[in-house]
Design brief:
- The chain has eight helices and seven strands; from the N terminus they run E-H-E-H-E-E-H-E-H-E-H-E-H-H-H.
- The chain is α/β, with parallel strands linked by helices.
- The strands form two sheets. A five-stranded mixed sheet has the order 3-5-4-6-7, with helices on both faces. A two-stranded parallel ribbon has the order 1-2.
- Strand 1, helix 1 and strand 2 form a beta-alpha-beta unit.
- Helix 1 crosses helix 2, helix 3 packs across helix 7 and helix 7 packs antiparallel against helix 8.
- The longest helix is centred in the middle third of the chain and has 17 residues.
C-alpha cells in the first residue's frame, strides 16, 4: 500500500490525466491498465481531471437516480467493462424506464479500500454514499473478480455486490467475444440486474429472453 498504485482509465482523457500524475510521481510503482484500440470518449479534459483526482465517482449523465434511491448500482473499472456497463445501462433505461440506475466508474482501484489499508482509500461513509448500504451492485471489472471482493470485504454492502470479471476464458479473438466468454458483456449484465432487482422480474421476462437470444446468436 505504501508504493503500489493501480489505475484503470476508461477513455483517452482519463488516460492522459492518470499518465500525467504518474509521470510526476516518485518512489511509487504505478500500474496503468488501458487498451490500445479506438474507443469512445466519455469525459472532457476538465471532467477527466476531476474524476481521476477523486479516483471514482457517479457519472450523473449515465444515471437516472438523482432524487431517488437507486434500484441498482452499476459499477465498472476498466475501459472495456465501462463500455459494456454503459451499453447495459442504455438497454435498461430504454426497456425499463422507471428503473433507477446509478453508474459508478472506478479509475483508482485502491480507492475501494478503507483509508486504514491504503492512502487512496475512501471512508466507509463515502463508500456507502456511492454504493448504498442495501442495494444490489453489479460490478464489471477488467481482472479477476476475487480481487474486488478482497478490496471491499469489510464494507457494509459487500454481501450485495456481484462482481463480473476475467474467468480465464478466450484466446485471440474480438474484444466483444472476450467479454461474452467471460460474462462481462452487456447482455449478461442486463440479466444480472433483472435477477437482482426482483420487483422488475415479471415485467422483464421478455427482456431477459431477448438478452439470452442475443448471446446465443453471438456464440453461433
Amino acid at each position: 500500500a505504501d508504493v503500489i498504485r493501480v489505475y484503470l482509465p476508461p477513455d483517452a482523457n482519463t488516460l492522459l490525466s492518470v499518465a500525467d500524475h504518474c509521470l510526476r510521481s516518485r518512489n511509487y510503482v504505478n500500474v496503468i491498465v488501458a487498451g490500445k484500440q479506438p474507443a469512445p470518449q466519455y469525459l472532457d479534459m476538465d471532467a477527466a481531471i476531476i474524476h481521476c483526482t477523486k479516483g471514482l465517482g457517479i457519472w450523473d449523465w449515465a444515471s437516472n437516480d438523482r432524487g431517488h434511491e437507486p434500484d441498482v448500482v452499476m459499477a465498472c473499472a476498466g475501459d472495456v467493462p465501462t463500455l459494456e456497463t454503459l451499453a447495459a445501462v442504455s438497454i435498461l433505461r430504454e426497456e425499463l424506464p422507471d428503473l433507477h440506475v446509478r453508474l459508478v466508474n472506478v479509475v483508482d482501484l485502491m480507492a475501494l479500500q478503507p483509508p486504514s489499508e491504503h492512502p487512496h482509500g475512501i471512508s466507509d461513509a463515502e463508500f456507502d454514499a456511492l454504493f448504498t448500504v442495501d442495494r444490489p451492485v453489479i460490478f464489471a471489472y477488467h481482472g479477476y473478480p476475487w480481487l474486488i471482493h478482497r478490496l471491499i470485504y469489510r464494507r457494509r454492502n459487500h454481501a450485495n455486490i456481484h462482481v463480473r470479471g476475467y474467468l480465464e476464458e478466450g484466446t485471440t479473438t474480438t474484444p466483444f467475444d472476450m467479454t461474452v466468454r467471460n460474462k462481462i458483456d452487456r447482455f449478461d449484465l442486463v440479466m444480472d440486474v433483472i435477477d437482482r432487482v426482483p420487483q422488475f422480474g415479471h415485467r422483464a421476462a421478455y427482456l431477459r429472453q431477448d438478452m439470452q437470444e442475443r448471446l446465443i446468436r453471438q456464440w453461433h
